[in-house]
Amino acid sequence: MPIRNRPGWIFMMAVLLLAVLVAAPGARAQSDLLNVNAILIRASNDPAPLDTRLDAIEYKLRRLFQFEHYRFMGEGSATLGLPGDSVLSLGRGNRMEIHVFTADRGRIRSQVRWFQNDAVLLTTTVVMTKNVPVVLGGVPDGNGTLIVALTVR
What we know:
Blueprint: H1 6-31, E1 34-44, H2 58-65, E2 69-80, E3 84-91, E4 94-104, E5 107-116, E6 119-129, E7 134-141, E8 144-152
Antiparallel strand pairs: 1-2, 1-8, 3-4, 4-5, 5-6, 7-8
């Protein structure tokens, strides 16, 4: 490159570097967004049809709760920042309040409160890993049990 074009080249590199630095916070903020999905499930020994929406988690449910049948009751999802708060409506008067504290080495620490209407059913802190369901539950419901499976994507 001839010497006379060198200042122009330096100017172009400076503009490119500035553009990368300005765009970087936006790209970082985008990566800090978490998609949280919660599925409300009713476990019982009463016959229920198989539900393909539970295929990815049924093995874990059977190991933890040892019921014969698992029935999809509702679900909710939200996108939230890090840190961030959200409320997921699950149907049948159930909702989850989620407060995400931190994410470190792929582990996301959250405070979770499960409500049925105005009653608090469960308050706990969970550590989640992306795409790995966390199962919360054991809340009595008639002759069965209500369960919530939380997954962060």
